[in-house]
Amino acid sequence: MSERGNNGVRSDWSCPIRPENLTSEVRRALGNEFAVADAVNMHGGAQKVVYRVRTVNGFTLMLYIWDISHNYFQAEVEEAAAEENGGQRSFGAELFRSNNRFMREHGIRTPAIYAMNTSQEQYSFDYALVEYIGGGDLEPYMNHPSEAVRDQVLGGCRELLGKLHQIRHTSWGPLTAGGRLPDGDGQRVSCEAGIHDNAIRNLAFLAQETKLSQLKQGRLEELLERIRAGIVPRADYRFIHSELGPDHILVNEQLEPYLIDIEGAAFFDQEYEHSFLQFRFAGYERYLAREDLDPVRMRFYKLCHHISCATGGLKLLQRGFPNRELANAIMSSNLSQTLSYL
Asked: Which end of the chain is more exposed for a tag (fewer CB within 10 A), N or C?
């Protein structure tokens, strides 16, 4: 059991922000009666680190830290940042801030930001104090023994996503740091072109790492090109989360869902979202499926997702991700799904 010092802070403090600095941030945001008692690392995520912070008067909030040196996809983030072809980044406090503001303005439930520090004067990373949602993530509710509870929670997810995907624009891409809509004047390629090119790179990586034979690599590349050739151009894009799994939805005590990990949200094909939901959510067909989706886009993006997830799981294994069992499961299951297309 951890002891506490005279200031009430745990003696095993491991948060990279010093307790006195964190208390100052909390007090500026919430008032002088709040002082930090502890900060517990909730998970070492692939893109940011999250702490649950408790104050001495019993209040709970979250601390998000965006530290590129702790990002398991640092090389990919830096490569995307250097691109000049409209490739979107899904890392960083400014994306989180603009997407949070945009979603909340449109009535999309996502935890509130209490404070954000992007000055990097004291620390070499950006961080934010964020509302705590106390009911846990969605996973346990998908197989809840009570059908009424499942209906309430997953029905709430359907309503939340419906509201999110009702936000439309004629150009694709992320919001700017200031929250402005994407400008289509500079778009030289279709939105699916970048996804295709990334899938080709990922197939080459899987083949290089001997997870895929060159023969199967070539057949999958041909299949991707054939499916892509059947996509009919359009200019109707929806605001989507972009990587929405059950671990990216929190549920409060009233069984209301909240979207988290929203840095990658952008205007894009809604099939990109739904093809991911289709294999990540138990009960997708009952609760989340739509009848207005393009089946060609659905098949194209679903294959691309499986290729991407197989690659991502393998990179996590290679880069020391602590939950090796999870990383291996992501890699192996998605590689199997990829090969099933052949």
From this structure: N
